[in-house]
Amino acid sequence: MTTEAARPAARGWEVAQGQSERLATWRDLADRLGQPGVVMLDTRTDGEYAGTTKRARRGGAVPGAVHVEWTRSLDADGEFKPAAALQAMYDAAGVTADKEILAYCHGGYRSAHSYLALRLLGYPRVRNYVGSWKEWGDREDLPIEQPVSEPAG
Q1: DSSP category for residue 145
Q2: CATH 3.40.250.10 for the 23-138 domain, yes or no
Q3: For the segment 14-41, what is each residue's pLDDT rounded down to a tens digit?
Q4: What's the maximum distance between 2 C-alpha atoms anywhere in the chain?
Q5: Cβ contact 26:139 at 8 Å
Q6: Residues 62, 101, 105, 130: which is the catalytic one?
Q7: Where are the domains of the chain?
Q8: Distance between CA 46 and CA 150 in Å, rounded?
Q9: What is the pLDDT of residue 147?
Q10: Is 105 a catalytic residue?
Q11: Which neighbouring-strand residues pair with 104?
Q12: How far apart are CA 20 and CA 39, in angstroms?
């Protein structure tokens, strides 16, 4: 028996085996920056997207990200809007079912909501970046931009 506490090894965000069709990593986003047919979907608030509300080491967005705040998919009662309204909102933002969608927020929770909305609409290639802005914004080796925040649609 020992009285010393075990020290767990430091780890980054890892996607569990078999989950890569649902979850994305920073590498997945970095490898797809600027690629046609890929949408980086930023589901955070206007301030977080623009970089004026900073919740990580750096503020801003993944370069080229499309901004559709997750709450825009909800009605006044906090339920999903009708499918036709959601489809029109995402279509207007360029988030279409023929593209690969990589959704992120700050910690993967809000983007999980958008992931679910898109999957319910039948989008076949949607993944949630669990590390999200907390990971991306804290890493000095990943590019960012401070876009002008204009809500889509």
Answers
A1: B
A2: yes
A3: 555 556 789 999 999 999 999 999 999 9
A4: 63
A5: yes
A6: 105
A7: 23-138
A8: 8
A9: 83
A10: yes
A11: 42
A12: 17
